[in-house]
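chain below, 191 aa
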Amino acid sequence: MASLAAEIGAERFATDASDPAAVAQLFEAADERLGEPHVVLYNASARAHGPIAELDPEAVRKAVEISAFGGFLVVREATRRMINRGSGAILLTGASASIKGYPHSAAFAMGKFALRGLAQSAARELGPKGIHVAHFVIDGAVRSARRPDPADRPDSTLDPDAIAQTYIEVLRQPSSAWSLEVELRPWVETF
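prediction:
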């Protein structure tokens, strides 16, 4: 991450997304170094993987706190900064688990379903106040150096640059036609 930040001239901040005081301090530090945000993107999540009967309750609690409660904390702090200005955008990253649960993935689905509900409520509350809230369902594997496309199935994973381009396109939408939810999936992903 440090090399990417240096390459693009980005500031880096770290926080515990599930801690209200830490998230508030993150926004205060960002305000001081960058000014109040016009765009906020929440992409944090955690997993507690396994059969429901065997899941550690504390691991599930932490997963839901990071995926859902952390999203609420970030939306709250962003809203406090954007509401008086009457403009801004809050983008929340979901997953396939936002719309369908999978075996051994109950905690992740719980968090992502809740994040989607937050996005829907926030969009309806904040849209009339000039704040664009959108939820992105990333429905498929994301390509990386560790997860390249198989030679026999090109473009079968989501290209991170294509995902970023979609986020940018949503940011450019006129307020008369805002998307509240966008699903991204490679051509091989089943519905």
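The mean pLDDT is 95. Residues 57-82 form the longest helix (26 residues).
thats it, cya
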